[in-house]
Amino acid sequence: MKRKIILIVLIIMAGLICYPIIFLVSGSFMSSQELRENLGPLLTDYTNAYISAGLLPIFPTLKNYVEILLDSPEFFVMFWNSVRLAVPILAVQLVAGVPAAWGFAKYQFPLKKVFFTIYLILMMMPFQVTMLSNYLMLDKLNLINTHLAIILPAGFSTFPVFIMYRFFSDIPREIIEAAKIDGAGAMQVFRYMALPIGSAGIISAMVLGFLECWNLIEQPMTFLSDQDKWPLSLYLPNITPETAGSAFASSIIGLIPAILVFLAGQDYLERGIMASAVKE
Amino acid sequence: MKLLERIWDFKIQEKEYISMRERALRVLAGFLIIMFLFTILSRAANAMTIPRVQVESAAKKTIEHTVEQEGKIEADGEQAVTTAGGLKIKSVQASNGMQVEEGTPLLELDMEDIAEKIKELETELGKYELSISDAKYNKGLQESDRSTGIKRAQEDYNSITAEHNARVDTAKRQMDEACTAWENVKNNPDPENQNAEDQTALKAVYEEKQVLYNDALTARDQALKEASRAIEDAGKSSKDSTAESTALDKEAVEAKLAKYQQLQKHNGIITAPGKGTITFVDATVVTGGVTPETSMMLISDASKGLKFTATLDEDQQKYVAVGDEVTIVNKNNEEINNVTVESMAPNAESPKNRDIVANLGDTDKVQVYDTATLKVKISSKAYSTCIPKAALRKGGSGESDYVLVLTEKKSVLGTQLVAEKLAVTVQEQNESYAALADNEVTSVQQMIVDSDKEIQAGDRVRLAESNE
Q1: What sign does the CA torsion over B307, B313, B314, B319 have?
Q2: C-beta of residue A31 within 8 angstroms of C-beta of residue A244
Q3: Edge-to-edge strands of the sheet including B269-271?
C-alpha cells in the first residue's frame, strides 16, 4: 500500500515535470487561433485571466512545422550556427581535454594539486563571474563577435577534463606499467591503453559537452552582436501569439539533436554523471 | 521463370542487432541530412519571394523636355480644277494623293458628248438670236404706234380747241349784243314808259346769253382737259427688256459654247493647272460619270509650300509657342530643322488641346499626306540631384512623393537589403528624370527603379543580376 502511494506520488510528480515537454509537443501542432486562445492572457493582455493549456490540439496542423522548415531560413541559419559551435567545441575538448585529463590522472609534476584546484574553482564559477574578464580578453584578441569567442572558452572548459580525469584515474597503474614493460612509450600507452579504456569517460564528457553547448544562451548573447552568428538557443526571443506556434515547432526541432545525442551516449552519460559526483 | 523462383524463395533476412547508440547516431545523421535539405529548400523559397530590384543613383543632370507629336503634312494653298458641268467622263487618270506637274492629264471627256453639246448650244444660240430680233422688231412697232397716237391726240386737241373757241366767241358775241340791246333800252328810257316791258325782256335775254356764254367756257375747259389727257395717254409706253435679257442668256450660252469648243480643241483632255498633289477628287469624277458644276478636284499648290499640322495636349503646349523653331522628322528619320511655328489654335473638338501649324516652306523631304513627327527639345538648368523617373513614387493623398532607397540591415540571415522610404521634393521632371531639391538624395544612395514584384517600404529586396 505504502509502495503504491509512493508510486502514485512519483507518477504525479513525473507528470508535472514532463508536462512542459508534453505541452510543447502538443502546442507545436496547434493552430495560431488555438494558441491565441490558450496563451492569449499570457502573451497579449496582461489581465488576471489564466492561460489554459490543452493537452491535445483540437485541430492538429503541421502549419507550424511547414512554416519553420520551408518559410524560415533564419531558423536554419541559427541551427547550423549551433552545429558550427558545437562541433569545434567538442573537437577542442577532445584534442585538449583528453591529454590534460590523462596528465592530471597519471603524471606527477610540480604544483599539480594547485593547478587541479584552480581547475576545480574555474569549474565551479558560474559564467556571470568570468563574463567581464572573458569579454575583455576576447576583445583584446579581436575575437568579439566571432564564433571563436564562444568556441575557445567552451573548448578549453575544465568540466570535461574533470570528468575524464575521474575515468583515467580508475585505470589501474599495473596495466600501464605492464604496457611500459612491454616497451610501450608514453604516446603508445596513451593511444593504446588510455583512450580505449577511458572511452566511456570521453564519450560521456562529449555528450555532456554537447548538451551544454547546444543550449548556450549567455555566451552568444554577450559575445555575439551580429544576429547571423547566433545559435538556435536564441531563436525567437520575443514570442507573440502569432509566433508562438513556430516557437514551439522550432523548440521541438531544436530538441531532436539533443535527444539523439543523449540516446547515443546514454549508457556512458550515467557513468559520467556519477564520476563527476565523486569528490576528489 | 528464374525471377519467379527467386521471388518464391525470397526470405526476409533476419534483422541484425543495432544498438541504441548506433541507431541514435544514424537517426542524428539522417536528421542532419534532412535539415540540410530543408535549409536549401527554405533558402530557395526565400529567394523566390524576395523581390529582385534594379537600382540607380542620383546624378547631376539637366532635365530635357522633349515634345514628340505625330502630325500630317498639308499643302499651304490649293487650286481647284473645274470644267463645264454635265459632260460625260471617258476616263479618269487622277487619284487622291497623286503628284502632278503642270499639264499632267487628269481626265478625258467624251468627245461625242462634247460635239453633241456644242450642237445643242449652237441651236440654242440660233434660237436666242431669233428671239432677240423678234423682240427688237416688236419694240419698233410699239414705238411707231405711240408716236402716231400722240400726233392724233394733238390734232384732236387742236380741233377741240378751235371748235370750243368758236362756240365761246359766238356766245360772247350774242351775250354782248343782248347786253348792248338791253343797255340801249335802259339808257334811253321812254317817257311814257311804254318800253318797260321790252327792257325786262331784253334783260332776260341778256342773262340767258350770259348763262350760255358761261356754259360754253366750262364746256371748252372740260374738252381741253380731256384732250390733253388723251395726248398724255398716247405718250405713255410699256417697258420691254425681252431683247436684253435674251441677249444675256445668249452670252452665257456663248461662254459655255466657248468652253466646250476649247475642250473640243484639246480633244476633251483636262490637265493639271500647276505642280502639286491632288488632295481631293469629287465622288462623281469616275469613268462613265458626269462632270460636276462645282470643282472636280483640288490640287495642292506646291508653289506656296507645305505645312505641318498636329494637335498638342496640355503638357506639350507648355514647351512650344508661336514663333518657336522646331524640328520636323519625316518617316525616313530625316530632319527638317528651323521650322517656325505659325499658329496654335484651340482644337475644335477638345479646346484644351491646341492645333499647331508649322510652315515647312518648299521642301522635298515630305509630301502632302505624309505623316511626320514634331520634335522640340528644351533643356532646364543643371540640377545636382536628378533621379530616374521610375524611382519616383507617388505618395498618398496629402503625402509628398518618395523614393525607396536601399539600406543594409543586419538580421539573422546576415546583412540584408531593405527598401527604405525617403520623402523627396520634385523641382522639375520629364518623362525620364525628375530633379529633386539639392542633397535630398546622395549620389551613393541606390534607388529602386524596377522590381519583379510590388514592394513597399520596409520590404527585404535583393539586387537583380544585372545590377550586381
Answers
A1: negative
A2: no
A3: B89-92, B105-109, B269-271
Strands B269-271 and B52-57: unpaired
Q: Compute, in degrees rounded to 10, the torsion defined by CA atoms B44, B46, B52, B57.
A: -120
The answer to whether residues A244 and A27 touch, using CB atoms and an 8 Å cutoff, is yes
Among B42, B410, B411, B418, pick the best mutation site for testing chain A contact (most A Cβ within 10 A): B42
* Identity at A102, one-letter amino acid code: W
Find out whether A251 and B18 touch, Cβ atoms under 8 Å. no
Residue B48 touches chain A, beta carbons under 8 Å? no
Q: Which three cell numbers stand for residue B218?
A: 366750262
| C-beta separation of A175 from A193 below 8 A | yes
Q: How remote is the C-alpha of A223 from its chain's centroid? A: 18
| Total residue count of chain B as it appears in this document | 468
* Spatial separation of the C-alpha atoms in residues B14 and B381, rounded to whole Å: 90
pLDDT in tens, chain B (468 residues): 676 777 677 666 666 677 888 888 899 999 999 999 999 999 888 888 888 888 888 888 888 888 888 898 887 777 888 888 888 888 888 888 788 888 888 888 888 888 888 898 889 889 988 988 888 888 888 888 888 888 888 998 999 999 999 989 998 998 888 888 888 887 776 666 666 777 788 888 888 888 999 999 999 999 989 888 888 888 887 777 888 888 898 888 888 888 888 888 888 888 888 877 888 888 888 888 888 888 888 887 767 778 888 988 888 888 888 888 888 888 888 888 888 888 888 888 888 888 888 888 777 788 777 888 888 887 778 888 888 888 888 877 777 888 888 898 887 777 888 888 888 888 888 778 888 887 788 888 888 888 888 888 888 888 887 655
Buried b (16+ CB within 10 A) or exposed e, B330-354: beeeeebeebebeebeeeeeeeebb
Strand ranges (E), B362-454: 371-388, 392-393, 402-411, 414-423, 426-429, 433-436, 446-451
Q: Which residues of B touch A71 (CB under 8 A)?
A: 42, 45-46
Residue A249: CB atoms within 10 Å: 25
Pick from B24, B38, B412: which is nearest to A228 by CB?
B412
SS3 B352: coil
Q: Residue A179, Cβ neighbours under 10 Å: how many?
A: 16
Interchain contact, A261 vs B21, CB within 8 Å: no
Burial label, A204 (beta-carbon count in 10 A; 0-12, 13-18, 19+): buried
Domains of chain A: 2-61 (no CATH), 70-277 (1.10.3720.10)
Asked if B66 contacts B430 with a C-beta cutoff of 8 angstroms, the reply is yes
List the Cα angle A242/A245/A249 in 5-degree steps.
145
Q: Residue B28: which of A78, A79, A257 has the nearest Cβ? A: A257
Q: Which residue has the cell 505504502?
A: A2
Scan residues 393-432 of B and list those with Cβ closer than 8 Å to A: 410-415
Helix%, strand%, coil% for chain A, nearest 5: 75, 0, 25
